[in-house]
Every structure is written in C-alpha cells, then in structure tokens.
Amino acid sequence: MTPAETLTAAQRATAAKEWSQAASLWEAVYQTAQTASNNYQLVNALVADEQYSAASSVATEFETTYLQTDGAADLYLTALLKSRQFIPARILVTARSAGEWQLAALQRVQEAEADAETTLATTLTTTMRQFYHLSDQPVEAQAERIQAAQHLTYAKYLTAAKFLLVDPFLHQLSRVEVLYTLRAIGVAEPVDLQTFDDQRVTLIPAQLPVMGQDTTSLAAQRVLSTSVGQQDPTLYAGLEALLSLQLMYLYPQAERVVLDPEVWVRVFVGLQTGQLSESDRRAASRIVAVQQKIQQMTLDLQK
C-alpha cells in the first residue's frame, strides 16, 4: 500500500475498533511520518489493544504533547499504570498543572499502587531490595536496576531512594539521577544527600532547580560560550557537553564547589586542551583536583 492507502486503512480499522490491525497500520503510518498526531493515534490503538508497554514507549517520543490536554494525558497515564510504571506515572501527574485533572489522576495512581502492593507484593519487595543495594553492582550494571525501580510504588521507591542518596559507595551520577527522580515526582519532604565533595546536606527535592538552570551553572555556560564558542564552534560543542557533565556531578549545589565560574571554566578549558600553564595549575590547585576527580569518576563509568 502507498502511504495514503495505509493511512486510510488505519483510520478505517480505528473506526471499526479493530485494534490489533489498527495498531499495526498506525505503526506503519508513524514510521513514514513521525508526527505528534500519528504518535497519538498509534498510542491510542496500542492501549486499546492492551499493548501497554509498547504504548508508553511510543508516547515518550512526543512526551510533551501528552501534557497539553487532559485526554492525551489520560491516555498516556493509562499506558503507564497498566504496565505498572508507577514512577513515570507520578512524573506525568506532577508535570501537569495543579487542578482537578491532577487530583483525579493522582487518585488513579494511588489506587493502582495499592492494588500492586497486594497483588505484586513479592515482586515489589524483590525489586526494592535490588534497588536498595544498587551500589553492590558495577556502575555499568546499575542502569538496569534504576530502570526496574520505575515499577516501584511511591512509598517503596522513596524508602530505597533515601538510603541511596547517602550511600557512600554509590556512583555520584547514579545518586544524582535518583535525586532528580524525587524532584520529578514532587517529593516535598526533606531528604539527606551525600554530595560530590562528601558532605551531607538536607534538601527538599520538589524545590530543586532544573538541572543546569541554577545561577552558577548558567554563569559557567555563559563564560564558556563567550570564551570559546565565538572563536571555535567545533571545540565549543565538545567542551559544552563535558561542562554539562561536570555540573551534573555537582547538582544541585554547584555553587558550593564552583566559587568563581570564570576561573572554573578557564581551568576546565586549559585542562581539556592541554594548555593550562604550570603557574595557573598551581594557583588553581583545588579546582584542578576537583576537575580531575570528576574526570576519573567518568572514566570509572567506562570500565
């Protein structure tokens, strides 16, 4: 069939509620034209055909569009709850504006979680235990357990997360990822975090800034753009990604380590390009040590 014929067939199958056929046809349409509208139609058919995991996976490709209307958000929420993805479901609910929809959606999530606590008690306990002991795994294997934890209920995820945030053996990026998830699900109670420089601070996740959007991070990014971006765009592109990674290690309190963004970026560029003079290295020995520690921790990810 031509693309036009496939679209017509998909629309007819949808109208006839022949959901398995509709899902197959909409997938073909979507592969040809990956638009938000085709994405919605495919997700709708997959949900109706009870292919919930596939539906939620497809929806992530146009996630922001599912935040725009109650109907689209309901569809996405159904896919998440039916596939027992309770943490992403809470992220969706938290991301939408407060109001009647959010209250009703939160009740749906809580009811689904309560049902899971009864019907999937053993599975949830096992997943929580594995998440709780995340640092027992090599760094490269931690991602799988972090992903599995997306199926935990709010209470179990939060309990394990509180331990992980202060687990001295957990890789810093894993710790930051867990903290950022708590921010995304709107945790409004204080939690303790072991920071990059081995300090313990108390934070309220829901009040934390978007990663990279705090004053210190933005200042550092501006300095890099001004000092390198206008002279060497190719070098800037690579350094920008590395600087963002550095700041991720320092989230959510980069200002505790980056006392002067201009000096930090000057040392950063010098180290990355091999052009940091010995006098500058001695003068900024603390910054050099911190940046080299970050570099080593990043290398550890590749082992």
UniProtKB/TrEMBL annotation:
Protein name in the entry: TPR repeat-containing protein
Organism from which the protein derives: Lactiplantibacillus garii
Domain of life: Bacteria
